[in-house]
Amino acid sequence: MAELKLRQRIGTLPRWAKLALLAALVALVVLLSKWLVLILLIVMGLWPIVLLAILGVVVPSWIPRLSSGFRWALTAVWEALLAALVYAAMKASIGLWPIFALAFGGMLLLIFTKLRGMIVPFLAVVTALIIGAVVIMVTDQAVYQALREGGIVEALKVAVANVTQAYGALYVGALGDPLKILNGIGEWLSGEGTKALVTSLRGPSDSLVQSVPYIFAGLAVALGFRAGLFNIGVEGQIGIGWMAAVVVGFSVPGLPAIILLPLAMVTGAVAAGLWASIAGFLKARTGAHEVITTIMLNYISYRLMAWLLCGPLEFTQGTCRTQDVVPAAYLPRFLNHPVTLHWGFFLALLAALVVGWYLFRTTWGFELRAVGANPNAARYGGMKVGRTFVVTMFLSGCLAGLSGVSQGLGITHNIALGFQSGYGFDSIALALLGKSHPAGVVAASILFGVLRAGASRMQSIAGVPTEIVQIIQAMVIIFIAAPAIIQTIYRLRQVKREEAQVVFSRGWGA
Amino acid sequence: MAAHAQAIPVSKKAGLSRRDLLTAAFMFLVGAIVLLLGRYGDQPADRAIFTDEVMGTLFSLPSQATLYVIGSVCLFLAGARLYRGAHSVELVVVWGVIFLAAFGFLVWMTSGTKLNLTGMVRDTLTYATPLTLGAMAGIFCERSGVFNIAIEGMMLAGAFTAVGAASLFDNLWVGVLVASLTGGLMAVLHAILSIKYKVDQIISGTVINILASGATRFLNIRLLEPAGLSTPGHFDPIAIPILSKIPVLGPMLFINQPIVYIMLGLLVVVNYVIFATPWGLRMRACGEHPRAADTVGVHVNRTRYISVIIGGLIAGIGGAYFSLGQVGTFEDNMTGGQGFVALAAMIFGRWNPTGAFMAALLFGFADALQVKMQILEPLLPFVNAPIPPEFLQTVPYVLTIVVLAGVVGRAIPPAAGGKPYEKQ
Fold first, then answer.
1. B18: chain A residues, CB-CB within 8 Å
2. Which end of chain A has less neighbouring CB within 10 Å, N or C?
3. Per-residue pLDDT of chain A (510 residues; tens, 9 = 90+)
4. Entry pTM
5. Residue at A8 is within a domain
6. Residue A422: burial class (beta carbons within 10 Å; 0-12, 13-18, 19+)
7. Of B141, B153, B154, B407, nearest in space to B284 by CA
């Protein structure tokens, strides 16, 4: 209620006051960004403890006919127990298993009571992870060796041990080691500096860093889907945006960061947007199907970049790599090494907000969705369908370009041949998983980022190739796209719901 | 459709549609480029000598004069297109211009030197093979009403299992068979997801692409390489006994990879099955108007299952070409997007196997040209520098866009494509 009142009160303010409020909010976030990021990463790394703590507050209020004093007592007891468990885990080396088990139970409780819409996605991820485990087991040479030497029991032992090691590494790589984070917080509080804490937060940071290009690219595809356009050329647009931003980043070295950074980013976005709008223009003018034109534009851009990077733009002979951008064009990072999280993450979240606003709150966004739902009806209603195609492809390309920009200015600071890392094709999956909704895309991107960040640690520690992640991703998409499979496996009741279907694609010739 | 609804009424008045103008402009441009190449890129005395491995010199052409002739013909055809708007022979004319220009380019490149023409034709055919196979796989799927952007994934999976099976059984043909079955298996997944579970067919295809790319790399590192099953060797060209002795044509067409013959055979069979058998008619009906097909007793979903799986089997063979036809081992993502180019060839060829084959030949020719160009390094007029090979590699893609925009813009896909069928 209070929130509603606040909203109403803000609503009555004049526009300049609203803008000032927004600016103040942004300034506050920017000022506090370092601490916000630290808290965000700690919450990610300690999610089981945080989840249990929140449950301790929330669950008592669900129990009917309970005096408020009793509720508070329940909460207090629960939090005390939790604190004791955490303390025991830190000091008595019993490990965090009880906490993880409780948190998992709590998650199940939450999902099956309050968040029933999450049942299928949750089970999809769990099932996909189980299938991934099975794949790791049956392809493990050590298992076969154990089978020959010690029989089936021995083999199973080896298999389980190896999968546990692999998934353990995946978890630590993606979300960090909670014990180390706790110890880091302890050191920080006892005044020994934040070094240990920052080091222990590498996992969560890596996950978010990996999710940045995913968010942008996923939004690019999602925006296209909403207009009935299938932008399969994101991969190429990422490259164009990346390269344009890097070129600006090193070719005008004298400028201050406040000008150079936005300039580089906008150049990258616009370059990719223009590249993509070729496809939109061709579709609007000649009806050439965008799937084919964007695929072709992809390959043209690959060749173009191969020529540029190993030719005119090459910095050191034989490397096929440009020179680094000047530090003024770096997307600033928040904390010290190894936390590489940079401003791109917040820009990506901002982009998601803007896309949501554009799609659902503006006339152009309405037009876009109308064209996506039924182009003929939209035309009959007086909308300029062709213009919508061009504009949508341009915006979609801009988002894809920003994906490359965030990588170029945030992480690599240059561009080398072979930069393509599959973001483009994963982004199609992201848009599908997120049902072409910006919030869904962000969630799906973070999931993919987590998997991708964990996979590299899994490869180095357990020797399981990172490609297992692609298998898991494919499974997740299958189960989410065909919920009937999950419902059959887990004998869930079919939930009959009429969902507004997003039109993903229409005929090649349409 | 967006544009046509607007463009067509306007064009009716003017007598020429925007497409006519575009096509003519494109042909005019091609002709002009050929003429310019002839004027500034060649010396009057230069001759282009085309050779053959067996016969030696086949023929030689005065390159400048040839280019003038070709350029003029292109210009003439462009003019004719404007004058008559010749719709009935439109395709023939356009393809004619494309192939003429391609030949002109070849002449310019060879001017003052020699080129192994038979080798060139053979290379073109070889490069076109996986594209044609992939395109036929797509045609089978899409003619029955199921989109297939998973050709890439099916081919990649086939390429992978081909290597494993061929090394395990020490027989390349087993490899091809297993590759085909693997493609079929991926197609079963595609069919179950998109027909039984009514998953959006683009999603289903994307899943298969991601799965194939991940699984093949994963299994290659975890299974094939440790087990030493990754080097089965590759096919050598087979000479067909009598036919290969025909001068010129023999070495061009009848000393080839076995998979090329398979492709040519399938081309005939697929054409026959789709357009000349009752089953093919029913299948196309499922893709155009499933309700009507159902009414007259065709099992729509069963037909779609069969078509999609046949498509997968064909795509698998295309996959075997990559690993067993060329390098004899599996490399990560070795299909390198050719599955998508096959998709383009399919649409370019208007869902018609022969058309797709022509498109694939064109793409294959550009590939072969690009390889030859790196050897001959002809200098461009005006800038006096060789064309960067990357530029030539973009030719098929640029050409696809140009032609798609101007000429094949009205390619009409099967009407029911992409929609799951539900009985009422």
1. 286
2. N
3. 455 677 777 777 788 888 898 899 888 888 888 888 889 999 999 999 999 999 888 888 888 877 888 888 889 999 999 998 888 888 877 777 888 889 999 999 888 888 877 888 888 889 999 999 999 998 888 888 888 888 888 889 889 999 999 999 999 999 988 888 888 888 888 888 778 888 888 889 999 999 999 999 999 999 999 998 888 889 999 999 999 999 999 998 888 888 999 999 999 999 999 999 999 998 888 877 787 788 889 889 988 998 898 888 888 888 888 888 888 888 888 887 788 889 899 899 999 999 999 999 999 999 999 998 888 899 998 888 999 999 999 999 999 999 999 999 998 888 888 776 678 778 888 888 888 899 999 999 999 999 999 998 999 998 889 889 889 989 988 888 888 888 888 887 765 554 444 445 454 443
4. 0.85
5. no
6. middle
7. B141
CB contact under 8 A, A507 and B415: yes
Ordered DSSP codes for A326-381? PGGGSPPBSS-TT---BTHHHHHHHHHHHHHHHHHHSHHHHHHHHHHH-HHHHHHT
Contact A467 B221 (CB under 8 A): yes
> Do residues A217 and A82 share a domain?
no
Look at residue A291 and tell me if it is in a domain.
Answer: yes
Last residue of a domain, one of A26, A60, A89: A89
Given an 8 Å threshold on Cβ–Cβ distance, is A429 in contact with B210?
yes
Helix (H, G, I), strand (E, B) or coil at B148: coil
Residue A71 maps to a domain: yes
Q: Which residues in chain A touch residue B408, judged by CB atoms under 8 angstroms apart?
A: 288
Q: Which of A392, A390, A394 is nearest to A275 (CA)?
A: A394
Q: What's the domain range around A322?
A: 208-451
Tell me: cis bond preceding A465? Omega within 30 of 0 counts.
no
H/E run at residue B59: strand B56-62
The stretches of B170-321 forming alpha helices (DSSP H) are 172-191, 201-219, 225-227, 249-253, 258-276, 278-288, 290-295, 300-320
Are B270 and B279 within 8 A, CB to CB? Answer: no
- In chain A, the number of structural domains is 2
β-pair type (B56-62, B47-52): antiparallel
Of B182, B199, B209, nearest in space to B146 by CA: B199
Residue A429, CB half-sphere, CA atoms under 13 Å: how many? 31
CB contact under 8 A, A465 and B204: no
Same domain? For A85 and A214 the reply is: no
Closest CB to A293 among B4, B208, B401 = B401
Residue B328 contacts A, CB cutoff 8 Å: no
Question: Does any CB of chain A come closer than 8 Å to the CB of residue B406?
Answer: yes
How far apart are the C-alpha atoms of A448 and B236, rounded to whole Å? 43
Write out residues 220-249 of B within 8 Å (CB-CB) of A.
Answer: 221-223, 226
> Last residue of a domain, which of A60, A89, A118?
A89
Q: What are phi and psi of B379, to 5 degrees?
A: -90, 135
Parallel/antiparallel/unpaired status of strands B114-116 and B47-52: parallel
Between chains, do A306 and B199 touch, taking CB under 8 Å as contact? no
Rounded Cα gap, residues B325 and A226, in angstroms? 42
Check CB contact under 8 Å for B218 and A298: no
ipTM over 0.85: no
